[in-house]
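Entry 12.
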Amino acid sequence: MADRVLVVNAGSSTLKLCVLARGEDRPVAAATLEEWEPHDSVVIREFVGGQQIDAVGHRIVHGGDRFAGPAVLDEGTREAIAALTPMAPLHQPRALAAIDATRQALGDLLSVACFDTAFHASMPVAASTYALPAAWRQQWALRRYGFHGLSHRWAARRAAVLLDRPVETLAMVTCHLGAGASLCAVAGGASVDTTMGFTPLEGLVMATRSGTVDPGLVLWLLRQGLSVEEVEDGLERHGGLLALAGSGDMREVLARREKGEAAATAAFDVYIHRLGREIAGMTAALGRLDVLVFTGGVGEHAPAVRAAAAERLAHLGVAVDADGNDRAEGDAVITRPGARAETVVVTSREDLQIADQVRTLLGSS
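Predicted 3D structure (tokens):
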């Protein structure tokens, strides 16, 4: 029985650890390292020392076309995750290092890999297929995978609970807005479309990622003499809000916008324009919009972003209560009375989603 699950979330630079007991929302123990080096396994050993742990759940960014759900971690699973490193070079090696460090600390304790891409495995062919030569698609498994699936799945199901409506009956757009950002069209509790694709670079304007750009523009830059590494660096680490406003932190962008700074105002407008356009696109994939959900650091803590997005989506029946939106903390319904679509704020809890998947897979839910 997996009464206590250790959740290990190894990001591109951070490491989040927590122990969740069955039936409890708050972790029994938790730790976050903002800067973590994969070779430093001491921190994991120190954290788990003395903790009662029955199973481990690891967040893995990329599951490729092999993993459509959580999988028990064995040598075969680990090798398959390692083989996907070229598709997620910033995240996959760190997740593998965390797997190895946890195994050293806890021995052969049952461990489960939970994939960010898995939730989107249900997308129809029309939404997941790139119009690329068949030989390319077959040789390299080129398709739209999508990311943030653990967060999107939690947000959709939690929003349904808050509204006291079955998730299976709802057409929802979930907005995971943080340093990385993506949307998901959720119908009947399943992903039917999303804004990220083969990599997490596609889609919305993000903190330091450009989001979608014309692929011809990328080719043009390469022909101007920029190296592949320079183009990648510009798109991944020096794009987005950072490129437009000089800061990738939405809090700073909003503060400078309030002061009337032109660059911050323009950056906010670009961000909201893309956000509104993509939410409308996700709604088209659904056919209707019952619920709009905001989650992630920006989605949860930036009322100005929620209000501006709702204003652009009025034609879809979205409207937020101004006071409720400004006061929202944690999980909250912020719909303006009379609006056709509900608007909900959900605290991102990938840890609870991972723990649930671990218990379900191990037959102890």
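Annotation: The two ends are 9 Å apart (CA to CA). The longest strand covers residues 4-10.
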